[in-house]
């Protein structure tokens, strides 16, 4: 099956290219600033934020991986690195002998509590302050529409 590619129009390509450039530049700057401010990686921050915001400090391993949309192997390596540094701990799941809970330790809580205010200040400075509330609302609707569309598409 050799279908002819549906190339992007110049307008579609411009929209895609600017979106990718903005996203990569924003994430790159936020990641570098997070490391400078807290010595934490973006992955550390994502895991700790997920645990403390959504999970009450404790989540099943697979639920945590799903919440950040990571493969099990990536989550496993990340958790191992964070456990070595004392930011998280693994606890056996009593109702599932093969399952694990990932728990934010007191050091993990301190790390996210120190990093989050600085991180949100950078998000505001680099992203939120560049847009009006109406533009933010539109971006949120567009983002949700794309996410919903992707859920309906095969991987």
SSE string: HHEHHEEHH
Spans with pLDDT under 50 lasting ≥5 residues?
none
Write down the Rg. Answer: 19 Å
Structural class per helix/strand content? mainly alpha
Tell me what you see in this structure:
The structure is a single chain. Helix 2 (42-53) crosses helix 5 (106-126) and helix 3 packs across helix 4. It contains six helices and three strands. It has helices spanning 10-38, 42-53, 61-67, 72-84, 106-126, 133-151, and strands at 58-60, 88-93, 96-104. The protein starts with 9 loop residues before the first helix and ends with a helix. The mean pLDDT is 94. It is globular. The relative contact order is 0.11. The chain has one domain (32-151): Winged helix-like DNA-binding domain superfamily/Winged helix DNA-binding domain (Arc Repressor Mutant, subunit A, Orthogonal Bundle). With 155 residues, the protein is mainly α. 65% of the residues lie in helices and 12% in strands. The chain has a three-stranded antiparallel beta sheet with strand order 1-3-2. One of its GO terms (biological process) is response to stress. Pfam families: MarR. This is Transcriptional regulator, MarR family. GO terms for molecular function: DNA-binding transcription factor activity. Residues 1-148 form the HTH marR-type domain.
């Amino acid at each position: 099956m050799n279908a002819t590619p549906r190339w992007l129009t110049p307008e579609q390509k411009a929209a895609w290219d600017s979106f990718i450039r903005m996203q990569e530049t924003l994430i790159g700057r936020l990641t570098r600033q997070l490391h400078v401010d807290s010595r934490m990686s973006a992955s550390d921050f994502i895991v700790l934020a997920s645990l403390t915001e959504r999970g009450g400090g404790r989540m099943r391993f697979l639920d945590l991986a799903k919440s950040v949309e990571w493969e099990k192997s990536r989550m496993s390596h990340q958790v191992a690195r964070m456990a070595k540094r004392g930011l998280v701990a693994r606890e056996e799941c009593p109702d599932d002998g093969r399952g694990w809970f990932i728990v934010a330790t007191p050091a993990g809580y301190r790390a996210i509590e120190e990093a989050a205010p600085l991180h949100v200040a950078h998000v505001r400075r680099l992203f939120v302050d560049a847009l009006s509330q109406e533009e933010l609302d539109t971006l949120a609707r567009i983002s949700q529409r794309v996410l919903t569309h992707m859920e309906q598409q095969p991987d």
